[in-house]
Amino acid sequence: MDYTSYKKYYFYTALFFILELFFVFAETHFILRNYLTDIFAVMYLYFFFRSCKIKVFTSLVTTFVISYCIEISQYFNVFKEYNGSWVSELVFGSTFDVCDLLAYNIGLGICIIIELMHTKKLPSF
């Protein structure tokens, strides 16, 4: 693929990064703040990998592993010495929540749907 075929991934990377920042800094409802940001973070990470010309399956697996490793590390308090650091809490989170794992899966599912729509393998309704 050439550069023009990856333009959509640059667009999606920027879009989900902006949405992520909006919901992180905006005064929004608890559910929007906590779960939408998890969904957008996974989508941002996936499309970042795709914009680096990494294949779909590799991008999905890498994003899945990174997001789950961060959540599991929260369960074991791996980042406890960084508690109170605003940047650490933004990047790694602060508390384990099983619903975050669901949010990651939802985000990856949306990424798969977007990929399928762009490859035109889904029937149009």
Task: Outline the fold blueprint.
Blueprint: H1 7-25, H2 30-51, H3 56-75, H4 86-92, H5 98-118
Helix pairs in contact: 1-2, 2-3, 2-5, 3-5
Q: Can you walk through the features of this model?
A:
The chain has about 120 residues and is mostly helical. The protein is built from 5 helices and no strands. It has helices spanning about 5-25, 30-50, 55-75, 85-90, 100-120. It starts with 6 loop residues before the first helix and ends in a 7-residue tail after the last helix.
Largest sheet: none
**Average predicted local confidence, pLDDT:** 84
H/E series:
HHHHH
* Class from secondary-structure proportions: mainly alpha
Question: How would the global form be characterised?
Answer: globular
Q: Which percent range fits the helix content? A: over 70%
Number of domain units = 1
Number of helices: 5
Question: Total strand count, please?
Answer: 0
End-to-end CA span = 28 Å
Strand content: under 5%
Task: Provide the gyration radius in Å.
Answer: 15 Å
Low confidence ranges: none
Short description:
The protein has 125 residues and is mainly alpha-helical.
Offer a few descriptive terms.
125 residues; mainly alpha; 5 helices
